[in-house]
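Intended use. Records like the one below are meant for learning the mapping from a protein sequence to its folded structure. Do not use them to infer anything beyond what is encoded.
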Amino acid sequence: MKLEIFNWPKISISESTVINSLQKEFSSFDISTINIIFVDEKEIQRLNKEYRDIDDVTDVLSFNLDAEGFLGEIYICPKYVKKTAEKYEEEIIRLIVHGILHLLGFEHKTKLDETTKQKEEMFVKQEEILENILKDLK
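Structure written out for the chain above:
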């Protein structure tokens, strides 16, 4: 898996450390290149409106491009995440994992909360991967 990250936010975890951990966790999947792009609120709202017909800011959007050698793109809005998440750096990594799982075909019916976390396959997988990555980062 090749990860390209653009506009990495200013956090204590290095981009290369996150890439190495993600590559380790997703090594069993046949993944080509994924771009992870950090954008401001205006841009993520524009993308959300254009592609989902939702005129609102969101935390993450995934686009499966399925081109040869290229799986897709994940857009994350750090400013929105900072406003809404208790553990900002952990949430950034969770959203990257979440986006990759979407690109791999995983779907969920509801938003993540304590009741769905235990039930939906995608969230269970997401939290397992996140836990492993956080262990690597310590």
